[in-house]
Design brief:
The chain has 332 residues and is an alpha/beta fold. It has nine helices and 13 strands. It has one domain: Alpha/Beta hydrolase fold, catalytic domain (Rossmann fold), CATH 3.40.50. It starts with 13 loop residues before the first strand and ends with a helix.
């Protein structure tokens, strides 16, 4: 949905004589073991594979653009990065795109809700004076693998952040990210990703979730009660075809949901009340639970009465809400 050998006494290469063992091929064996260990280390989550500068026509002239390939769950995964040309320490803004909310056997997804997942779309209009990271989850854009759902997309985003940190720490550039100053922003599935990730990391400074997916534990019961909605029906049909009956106590249900923990991270949720995919009442239910857990005055829900899923005609209203909220929490 858019908008989871038995051991032998004598080993090969060994000769026995007078009760002693000579491992004459041990150097070759050790070489293979070391090679395997190196490969395993190289594929460690959050390890950078490549970091190459790319051209983005509409990029702010004060920025450089890059494509970063990194390992996530053993899969080559892509992300786009913009970095100010002037050396310095910068805030990190992480932007998470939408997608399929449950794991599916789909690969090479190049667009979501009409938005192309390419550098030109992901980085055009990026703000100068900050570092921007836009992860492509597995199965999307140039990433390998298949679409992973909420849990996998959250892991991919977490690994992208770690990979970018490691790139700077290794001294590949004179610029760097200010420690502990990461802002997360996402829409639809990406909104769910930033909400879930904010419960996993302790270096998140702020979270903005727009028309967010609020997790399997809330969506499935809601969709069951409201099958007249075509998106809900499609979700249920796809879920049952892929996974069978829903089990609220299963490992999958827990992973594909957003566990609420006490957090002091300022969190803004923006929801369109004409959203045909993520229902505003469901989002409000999630928000009320989040507000109880988050012991801060800056956990906020803002409703846009005529807003659809993409807030297509309401970008000005969205931007005004964002700017006002950032001023309230003192980051502008």
């Amino acid at each position: 949905m858019n908008g989871c050998s038995p051991s032998n006494t004598s080993q090969p290469g060994e000769t026995k004589s007078e009760g002693t063992t000579s491992t004459i091929d041990q150097p070759e064996k050790t070489k293979k073991q070391n090679s395997q260990q190196t490969t395993e280390i190289a594929k460690e989550d959050g390890t950078v594979i490549s970091f190459e500068q790319i051209e983005v026509k509409e990029l702010d002239p004060s920025l450089n653009a890059y494509q970063m390939m990194y390992w996530s769950e053993g899969v080559e995964t892509a992300a786009y990065v913009s970095i100010p040309k002037a050396n310095g320490y910068y805030y990190l803004s992480v932007l998470c795109h939408g997608g399929y909310v449950i794991p599916l056997d789909l690969a090479g997804v190049q667009s979501v809700s009409g938005v192309n997942l390419e550098a030109e779309s992901m980085l055009s209009g990026m703000q100068s004076g900050i570092i921007t990271l836009s992860p492509m989850y597995r199965g999307y854009g140039d990433s390998q693998g298949t679409v992973p759902g909420l849990y996998g997309a959250t892991l991919d985003t977490n690994n992208a952040i770690d990979a970018l940190y490691s790139y700077f720490k290794e001294g590949n550039t004179e610029s760097s990210v200010r420690s502990g100053v990461i802002s997360l922003s996402g829409i639809s599935l990406g909104g769910g990703v930033v909400l879930k990730l904010s419960q996993m990391r302790n270096d998140i400074d702020s979270v903005i979730a727009v028309n967010p997916y609020v997790g399997l534990n809330l969506l499935y019961p809601w969709a069951t009660k409201h099958p007249e909605n075509s998106w809900n029906k499609g979700f249920l049909d796809t879920y049952h075809a892929e996974f069978g009956e829903y089990n609220p106590t299963s490992k999958q249900s827990k992973e594909e949901s957003i566990e609420l923990k006490r957090s002091y991270t300022p969190t803004l949720i923006v929801q369109g009340q004409k959203d045909e995919v993520m229902n505003w009442e469901l989002t409000q239910t999630f928000y009320e639970s989040l507000k109880i857990e988050n012991q801060n005055e800056h956990t906020t829900l803002e409703l846009i009465p005529e807003g659809d899923h993409g807030l297509t005609e309401h970008q000005d209203a969205l931007n005004e809400i964002r700017v006002n909220w950032y001023r309230q929490i003192g980051t502008m």
